[in-house]
Amino acid sequence: MLKQGQSKKKQSILGLIPLFKAIEEQGQDPAALLKHRGLSLDKMSGAAVIDQELELEIVADAIELLDDPILGVKVGSQVTFTSYGTFAMLLMSAPTFLETLKVGAQFQSLSLLFSQMTLHFDQDWLELRYTLPEASPKLKNFIADRDLMGSYTFVREFLDQPQDYFLGAGTARPKPVGRTLSEYRQYIDFDLEFDQPYNWLRLHRGVLSLEQKHGNHLAHQLYRVQAYEMLRKFYPDSDDVVAQTAQIIEGYDAQYPSVPEVAKMFGISERTFRRKLGEENTSYRKLLDEHKRKRCLDMLSRKNTSVNELADVLGYAESASFLRAFKRWTGTTPKRYKNEWG
Fold it and tell me: Which of 130, 226, 241, 278 is in the most buried spot, having the most CB atoms within 10 Å?
């Protein structure tokens, strides 16, 4: 039986398979690593899930055991499309790449990522950003490498000519040096910027209009039902429309979806969606406003950010509109707030 931790997020046990393979390739036994945490491969089924907290503890054990500074990129390079199960089929069956991104953000709890993905749209490109959890330097490097390689491999599965759309990438890990850098570059076949605040993959905006080669409306609807069933099984708040709506919003960096679009994601009418939120004494506007407030204050706490930049990132057409919202949130101006709380 899997250990029950305090972490809310759970992962499929299949997410550990690439790590186990890397361990075996270096002459070690993954079963011994699991035994240390009270787990046994023989007693696990393919449908088993594991708390992310426990999974990270197993990863940390592997890092210490193997003492390999690029273990993460080796593991990430072995993550295949089939590792994602229903999540992969849900994305593959979407009619367009834009829809793939949207459902990817909505159902990312079913992915194998340790990081949190958000979508950022610019006039000429879009960026998939991955914010890493707090961790020790070695573990954070592993997460950055593993999620970067896994995401890059995953995105390429959807594009016939990925080189025509891929514009670059960044990673939230320091640049390796010497021999380690040479070995690292054997796995990375694209230009990569190091020491970034988060992982990111940048694609030409033209990719959004691409029709998926395996897009199938009926199949997509069926996989969406399966995805909701998995959420209800593994996550206690998956039936909570408020929590699920908040999760959808968190998957966007800007250009947030409209009420009709979110209702469609739930497979219900706009009227029903509004009614469900109303029964919980909230609304989509309130949830979006709260998300923007938290995101704004988080940005102010981490770096010096101009009013224009805050307004742009949070989706306000004018600085004046943003300043009115900020005054409503805090009772003061960004500058005064920063001086008092920064």
Answer: 130
